[in-house]
Write a structure and sequence with these properties.
- This protein has a single domain, classed as Ureohydrolase domain (Arginase, Chain A, 3-Layer(aba) Sandwich).
- Helices cover about 35% and strands about 15% of the residues.
- Strands 2-1-3-8-7-4-5-6 form an eight-stranded parallel β-sheet, sandwiched between helices.
Length: about 325
């Protein structure tokens, strides 16, 4: 990666893991996300940087029964099965020294992927930094949300607030410490959820902060203290983007980042040279227009892997 010649997180190549399910969502369609990303050329976009790209195909899990919530959770047994599959697949690729990209699917799947990343970091003595790009804080619990949709709960589960079967995936509770995560682009949070996020101490750069201080400043703080011993994980929910440029999601929220703001986020991550795993979730082709949201997502991934419009000489970071 650019600017940090000693950083070699991509030496083993990149692995695409399709997870075609909308098991945790409130609308159907995210199960088609992995294929839409493949049609948009995600493998070719990454391979152009000289990287070995391996498409591992799609994981096979339970069907979506489309049932109402039971004791505050929709489809909990199926969500657990999918996330265990994701955990095992992501951890296996990390053990091979590869950079796994989970192609979702809805955002509940980040419970499995980030549990695997956190386990890998514990096993290898690495620090973990998770950048969570989303319109939502995803810190709901069964008592806070009447829908019971678990794609609104992954951060809470990762921090140890959720059903036992989910919080124990990865073998350590909590899988993620609040100080290891930074949330960016948040603009839709329930009151009870907001109190929990504040109480637990997650650092949030919401759209009000970005409007006032600028995306560059927010990203500089989100990336502060990332160093050679840091595993940097990006969890990118496509509804992070403003729906004017990314209509292909099931939970649009107006007032999101512009195209250039989103590109800047990806470029600044690329500058660190520390990207080591990635979630790309909540793409819903049923709501998209001529696959434009998938193509935009692939465009952002190109920037995440080093494409840049920067024309001046870069200064290496410490």
């Amino acid at each position: 990666m650019r600017n940090l010649p000693d950083a070699k997180p991509l030496a083993g190549g990149v692995s695409l893991i399709g997870v075609p399910t909308d098991i945790g969502a409130g609308t159907l369609g995210a199960r088609m996300g992995p294929e839409a990303l493949r049609v948009a050329g995600i493998a070719q976009a990454i391979a152009q940087f000289g990287l070995d790209v391996r498409d591992c195909g799609n994981l096979a899990g339970p069907a979506n029964p489309w049932q109402t919530a039971v004791e505050g959770f929709r489809h909990l047994p199926e969500v657990v099965q999918w996330n265990q599959l994701v955990h095992d697949a992501v951890h296996a690729e990390l053990q091979e020294g590869r950079l796994p990209i989970m192609l979702g699917g809805d955002h509940c799947l980040a419970i499995g992927s980030i549990s695997a990343v956190a386990r890998h970091c514990r096993e290898n003595g690495k620090k973990l930094r998770v950048l969570w790009f989303d319109a939502h804080a995803d810190f709901n619990t069964a008592t806070l949300t009447p829908s019971g949709n678990i794609h609104g709960m992954p951060v809470a589960c990762l921090c140890g607030h959720g059903p036992q079967a989910l919080i124990e995936i990865g073998g350590h509770v909590p899988a993620l410490r609040p100080k290891e995560i930074r949330q960016i682009g948040i603009r839709s949070v329930d009151e009870g959820e907001k109190r929990l996020v504040h109480d637990i101490g997650i650092e949030v750069f919401d759209m009000r902060y970005i409007d006032e201080m600028g995306m560059r400043h927010g990203m500089e703080l989100a990336l502060a203290l990332v160093d050679a011993n840091t595993h940097l994980h990006v969890s990118l929910d496509v509804d992070f983007l403003d729906p004017a440029i990314a209509p292909g999601v099931g939970t649009t929220v107006r007032g999101g980042p512009t195209y250039r703001e989103a590109q800047l986020c990806m470029e600044m991550i690329a500058d660190t040279g520390r990207l080591a795993s990635l979630d790309l979730v909540e793409l819903n082709p049923a709501f998209d227009v001529r696959n434009q949201t998938a193509e935009l997502a692939v465009d952002l991934i190109e920037s995440l892997f080093g494409k840049s419009t920067l024309m001046r000489q870069s200064t290496p970071r410490a």
